[in-house]
Amino acid sequence: MKVIRFFKEFYFIMNLFFIVTSELFFYFIYNDFPYFITRLSHRLASINILYVKIFQAIASNNSLIDEKINNQLLRFTDNAPWNYSDINLSDIIEVTNDFDLVLENGFESPINAGMISLVFMAHKRESLEPVIIKMKRNNIENKLASAIENLQTFMFLLSFFPLINKYQITEVVNKNIDIITHQTNFLEEVENMTVMKENCKNLKYVKIPSVRKDVTEKYPNIIMMDYIDGIKINEIKEEDYEGFARQVMKFGFVTTMIHGITHGDLHSGNILFIKDVNDDKYPHKIGVIDFGIIYKLDSDYKGLMFDILSQILEIPARETAIKLLSSGLIDPPNIIQQIPKGDYENIICLAAEIIEETIQSSKKANQLQVYKFLYKLKEYLGNSQLAAIGIRPSDNFVKSQLILAMSHGVTLTLCKNDFFSLADKVLNELFHINMLI
Fold this sequence. Notes:
Blueprint: H1 2-30, H2 33-47, H3 49-61, H4 67-78, H5 89-98, E1 101-103, E2 112-113, E3 117-124, E4 130-136, H6 140-158, H7 162-166, H8 169-182, H9 186-199, E5 206-207, H10 213-218, E6 222-226, H11 241-259, E7 261-263, E8 271-275, E9 284-288, E10 294-296, H12 299-311, H13 317-326, E11 330-331, H14 341-361, H15 367-381, H16 384-387, E12 392-393, H17 395-415, H18 419-431
Parallel strand pairs: 5-9
Antiparallel strand pairs: 1-3, 2-3, 3-4, 4-6, 7-10, 8-9, 11-12
Helix pairs in contact: 1-2, 1-6, 2-3, 2-4, 3-4, 3-8, 6-8, 11-17, 11-18, 13-14, 14-15
C-alpha cells in the first residue's frame, strides 16, 4: 500500500509541476496575467477543484491577485466543472419521490455546481412552491481525502524553500483544508442555517432560507431549503450599489458584534441581491446562502470590535493600536504588556503606522495593508526572545481576518473603495454611535 501511495503522490507532484511550469511558460510569452490565472484554474480543476480553492486562498492571502481576478476565481469555484458521475441518482430520485417534488430540469441538470455539492431547482408537485435541493457530489469525502494527502506531501516538499515560509503558504493551506472538510458535514450546515435564521429573524433586510432538517437526517447527503429569488453581484445596477452595500455591512456588523456568530464564507457567490420596490423602508435586501462555515466570537472580543469600529475615525491611530494589541488580538491574554519595553513600543508604532496609512490617510479598506500589518507583526514577534514568551495571534483575530478576506471583494465592489466612510454611516445608523461620542 505504501508503494502504491508513493507512486500516486509522485504522479500528482509531477502532474502539478508540469501544469504550473507550462502555464508559466505561456505567461512569459503572452504576458497576460488574468489569462494565466484562468488557464491555471481550469487545469488545476481538471485534477481536483480543491486545488483551485487552495490556489485562490494562497494568492488572495498574499495579495498576489487583485480583486477583479479574485472575483473571477470565486465565480469559477461557484460554477465548478462537474460530470454525471458526480450525481447520486438514487438519493435524488428517492428524495423527489418521498417529498413529492419535481425537478425543473430533470435529474441530470444542476443549476449550480460548487466544489462540494451540486444544486438543483425543484418545485412541490401540489403547490408548485419552488425549493432548492443541494446534493453532495458522489464520493466527495474520498476525493477530498486523497487530494489532501497529495497536497500535504507537496507542501512538505515546498517547506524547504524560504519563499514558501515567507508567504506562510503551509499555514494558509492547512487552515483552508480544515475549513473545506467542515463543508462536507451537511447536518452541521443545517444547524448553522437554523441558528443564523433565528438570529436574523428581525432583520427585515436579510433573507435566509428555511431548511428541512428532517430531509437531511434521512438523507445525509441532501439539503432541501427554500428558494430565494435574487440576482448576482455582477447584475446589480450601479444606482443600487450603495443600498446593497449598506445591507451587506449591516449583516456583517450585527452578526459579528451583537450575535457573535457570523457567516464564514461571505463572498459574492453566497449573496443574492433583491430589489423590493414595494418596500419603502428596505428596498434593498440580501439573501444569504451556504452556511457550511460559520465563526463564533467570544463576548469580550465582540465588545472590543464594537469599541474600535465605533471610534476608529475619531481617535488617534496610536490609541487604536494600543486597544487592538492589549485585548483580544494576541494570545495569551495581556502577554503584550509582559514583553520588553523597547519591543512593546516598536510593535505599537508599527501597528499605529499601518492603521494611520490604511484609515486616517487613505480612508480606504485596503486589504494589502491589513496583510502587511499581519505579516510585519508576525515577523517581529517571531524573533527568538519574543517567541519564547509564547505570543501568538488569538483564534478570534484569525477568524476576523478570514471574515475580512472573504467579504472584502463584495464590500469594496459595492462601496467603490470608500469602505470606511460608508461603514461609519452604517454603524451610526445601527447603533447611533454619534450620540455616544
